[in-house]
Every structure is written in C-alpha cells, then in structure tokens.
Here is the input.
Amino acid sequence: MLNIGNDAPAFSLPSDSGGKVSLADFRGKTLVLFFFPKADTPGCTSEANQFRDAKKELDKLGAVVLGVSGDTVEQLRKFRDKYKLNFALAGDTSHTMLEAYGVWQEKNLYGQKHMGIVRTTYLIDGEGKITRIFPKVKVEGHAQEVLTALRS
Here is the structure.
C-alpha cells in the first residue's frame, strides 16, 4: 500500500475522451484520484454524481477529478454520458495501475472470494506526491469529505 508523502505511481491509461490520460497531465494541480469498482452500478454512480455536483467547489480549490475503474473506455463513455459527468474517466483493463495503487485486492462477497477494486481515493499534489488517502471509502458523503480535506 502507498503512504502519504510517497510519489504517486506514474500511469498512462485510455480515457473516455478517446486519448490517453497520465499523471503528468495533472502537474501543478491537485488531483482527486478516485478508484471505483464498476461503472453504472448504484454505489459507483452515487460517488461519481457527488463529484460531478461538487465541481464548482473543487474548481475553487484548484482540484481536478479523475475516476479510474477496470471498465473499458466504451463502458466509461456510456457512464459519463448517462450521468453527464464533468470529469475524466480512465479504464485500466490490465489492472496495472490498480495494482500499483494497491486497490486491486481480494474481496469477499457472500463467502465467495474474487479479485476486485477496493473503493479508494487519493489526493495528489501538483508535484505528484500523495497528500491524503481515503481507504475503503463509504460512498455517502464522500465528495464532502474530500472537499473538507482539500480546505484544510
């Protein structure tokens, strides 16, 4: 697992805009990097909508949002369009970035073990350093929790 003060692992992933998105794209900005298990599922939709609705506040604080899942770019585009999401989404179908950030883990659902994304958010400063980690995120109120952390 990564720790506060670590350099955020570099990445380059396909994004919903059709190009690539990388950590270097966010140099000089605060990045709210949130990992979510699956596009267009109830918890992930609620979390994404909270970040969408918090955009004005995030902009005031100089923060940009990037959502990452293991979904394909096509799934992410449909998710973005359906909910009018106003931030970038990236898909890591190889799980390379998910593993680098420690969010691809064994999960237990109804006694069945499987690998999946543990909902986690990282705040990364303009120099690429991790300043805050929200492990095992509870969806309800998470965007407000992030805004509070950004203000402090």
User: Anything to note?
Assistant: The chain has a mean pLDDT of 96. Residues 71 and 91 are 5 Å apart (CA to CA). The longest helix spans residues 42-53. The first strand starts at residue 12 and ends at 14.
